[in-house]
């Protein structure tokens, strides 16, 4: 069974983001970029399914400018078999991303499509669901466990107040939550070897898909900063302050 | 113009998150309809009809909607969408699962996690873990939106909406519901609790034994950092932050939490924040109203004891 994993290049989660002086967006020049953490979990789960003999080939795909190659190298170093860069300099938004991924899925015919549940830059959390809709496939969002039984994926989902288990007919789209798998540490020799592996590059414009943005970002601003309060000396003083604030 | 809200209920009552969506929906100055799905929504529909600001309640009852799958919720939404200009939901696990699927089928770009509706198609939403507030404008004729519940007050009662019943489309054959496991707790629901007691990884195996009594004393809910969840000390559904639940209680007590941006994203709109941390330079003190530099294993039991008096 083939698995397709979609990965996104995002500002590293340890970087404190800054808004560009003209307010047009977030400064990414000279900023450390990484694979989106939830996408890395999706790659890890695909690798584990392969190690369990469920998946036979893993293809990782990313979309964006040529520099996005580095997240594909990371996926190769983790152990995926093949990578595809859908190259474009145009702005990409979730609906357009899902349409481009659909074109790749139709080309690759995976039984399983794995993605992170959300990217930590735009925090939109919707590409997996849209992709499933466009493919007419079943979806398992916020997955914390995946088992394959016959022609079904049995997925445990993280929902408000607990978990839910659903059975999805394959092919299915599954989005990774935090507890699905802990990504392996990438060893330097693997990273060096990954640099020698080929990256298949396709022009996004060649896929025959309308991925023009539907949403215009008109402003970016920093949220109001919460003023720091006071430090109290002991628990008795804290209780007194909380009583004054009328919250206890 | 009419707005359709994908409502959430527990079989008896409307969830607070849906009442918050009703408040948000008033921004469009258009009639608001609530869509309830379930196996028997009669009681929940009666509750929904009383909410001020709701013109109509639409019930779709079918056995397969008892535990509705995203596939089935989306097909109901798509069948109804032609009559509406706005499809709205709260940014909860339920709507986050189903609304993007419906938006995909309708070829609409969904605007997620909105904290302010500035104009009928202009929204403010946090990105980068709330470190940036983006103003966005949608060009779609149909708006599909989820709102951050903590940014809107819950609508109260006082309405008298009509209730209509529609037949459900056939169940999907691509997926089936198998089972659920609810974390049983006597504590209030995290998203709507008046008090939240939250802990970090340093609590270790003593997460429950140290924080539980304080939560009981204050009738609060327990929350946790991503690191505490990652390490297995706390269940995932109480994770607070960018990738977990966003809360804004009256009182938020952070015990042994350093204050990473990803965590602050989920609690910095709380009314009063208390930080207990042994590191005087911890970032959490920069957002805390009241801070104590102390070992939480001493301070938390002391606080619990002091509140009992």
Molecular structure report:
The complex is a heterodimer of chains A (248) and B (309). By secondary structure, chain A is α/β, with parallel strands linked by helices. Chain A contains six helices and 13 strands. In chain A, α2 crosses α5 and α3 crosses α4. The termini of chain A are far apart. Chain B has eight helices and 16 strands. In chain B, α3 (70-80) crosses α4 (93-105) and α5 runs parallel beside α8 (296-308). In chain B, the strands form three sheets. Chain B has a seven-stranded parallel β-sheet with strand order 5-9-4-1-2-3-10, sandwiched between helices. A five-stranded parallel β-sheet of chain B has the order 13-12-14-15-16. Chain B starts with a strand and ends with a helix. Chain B has helices at residues 16-25, 42-49, 70-80, 93-105, 207-218, 226-230, 261-264, 296-308, and strands spanning 3-6, 32-38, 56-61, 86-90, 111-114, 116-119, 122-127, 132-138, 143-147, 162-166, 175-182, 195-199, 221-224, 251-255, 272-277, 290-293. The chains are: A alpha/beta (248), B alpha/beta (309). The interface between A and B is large, with 79 and 90 residues. β9 of chain A pairs antiparallel with β11 of chain B.
Structure at a glance:
The complex is a heterodimer of chains A (248) and B (309). By secondary structure, chain A is of the alpha/beta class. Chain A contains 6 helices and 13 strands.
